[in-house]
Write a structure and sequence with these properties.
By secondary structure, the protein is mainly α. The protein is elongated. The protein starts with a helix and ends with a helix. The protein is built from seven helices and no strands. It has one domain (about 5-140): bsu32300-like (Four Helix Bundle (Hemerythrin (Met), subunit A)).
Length: about 140
């Protein structure tokens, strides 16, 4: 079964919108970022929502195209990466984002503003790359 193009488009747009807002919040230097508690909290939520959107997109494609339900963010990113031949470095970035999201949500440990800032600036771009790669793959497969 083919992925639903409307759902893929909506999820992709939501991910990219969150990443755009996240870039705006982290475009300042770290001192200014850290000084504004609302900015730090907004960045945390935008990271969570972007990763959750990417996982929803991943699960949709895995279920529709590959008839598989991986059962977790990291498992889904890895399963899709296996199917599409994504390199380990890229998959590692997606795994780090999924783990960071889990730490934010489940409070496994205290997350510092510095960690949020670093993840937003250095790792979150992997989600935009994932959207780009999936759109390209779906077009090549005639499914977009």
């Amino acid at each position: 079964m083919k992925p639903d193009p409307e759902r893929v488009a909506r999820l992709s747009a939501e991910i990219l919108e969150r990443l755009e807002k996240l870039r705006a919040y982290t475009a300042v230097d770290f001192t200014d970022f850290q000084a504004d508690e609302r900015t730090v909290l907004a960045a945390k939520m935008l990271l969570v929502e972007a990763v959750e959107g990417a996982a929803a997109l991943c699960n949709h494609i895995m279920a529709r195209r590959f008839r598989q339900a991986p059962g977790g963010f990291i498992l889904c990113f890895d399963a899709l990466g296996d199917r599409l031949g994504w390199e380990e470095e890229f998959r590692g970035r997606l795994r780090r984002l999924a783990r960071f999201r889990n730490e934010l949500i489940h409070e496994y440990r205290e997350i510092t503003p510095e960690q949020v800032y670093r993840m937003a600036r250095e790792e979150a771009g992997a989600l935009a790359e994932m959207v780009r790669r999936l759109r390209e793959w779906l077009r090549a497969e005639g499914e977009a």
